[in-house]
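S.,

As promised, the zinc ion run. Input:
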Amino acid sequence: MVYQYQPLNLVEFFAAFPTEEACEYHLIRVRWPEGMVCNGCGGKDFYRRIRTRRVYQCRYCRHLTSPTAGTILHKTRTSLQRWFLALFLIASDKRGCSALLLSKQIGVDYDTAWAMLHRIRHAMATRDVQYKLSGLIEMDEMFIGAPTEGKKRGRGTEQTPVLVAVSFFTGKRGGEYMGFAAMRVVGQIDTTTVVAFAKEAIEPGSRVRTDGLSVYPALEKHGFLHDPNPVRRRKAHTVLPHVHTFVSNLRAFVLGTYHGLGEKHLQQYLDEFCYRFNRRRHHDELFDRLLLACLEKDEMPLSVLTR
Ligand SMILES: [Zn+2]
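Predicted complex:
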């Protein structure tokens, strides 16, 4: 990323992005730090084509290029300024932003705000799957959702099984520090889902510490080093301390901002939580990082997102 701008507060935000044109200009600079390029001939010289449409015409080959083409912002009926403000609000609050709050703050209806948030979460997830956890990892399973009456599923009374992996490293004085995290909603906790999640989220050769549940030794056959650490008589949180801390934070986040989650979109909420967690040391850069994530993502029709 060559160009960066991070507005610090709302006053600075509106000073930096007072108009639709200012947002568009910033978007072009973030997407093409060396200047916008014609899709047709690779030229960099454009006529502004139509004022009411975000389209530029190449001076050489006359091909039309839109700065939002191929991104989740393309063909949106919501102004860029509202999108920018949404990204700013999402980046500003560590707990995120509900669709209801977003709709009030940027002046769009609830469904529009909901769709924007889901597109942004999709962009966050797409960004994070490009990275894998490596080195030392803790992996565990958890269950999210309302208690199921009468029947117990898995080891808890909650509904949806989720696999959690948190990387950690050892400091100079022997203390352990959390690195990055990944989470995956799965149909059930078994050898197949554990191995599939590990292959997606973790570099081969990494050492994976678990509570020794029977589904985890299979990791050894798939290129991971397995370090079983059974609970036995110890307190559960001393066995996998990093996962335990991470999950405690997640539960506070889930209960605080979203008041319980539907299973249908649970993965997207978890993706947002991981995205923020993985960039917690870069909080000041979150606005531009989010904008870049939105610009890199291929166009995602809402029909796919809401399935
Ligand atoms: Zn051209």
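Residues 38, 40-41, 43, 58, 60-61, 63 surround zinc ion (CB under 6 Å). Strands lie at 46-50, 55-58, 64-65, 136-144, 160-170, 176-185, 207-210, 225-228.

- D.
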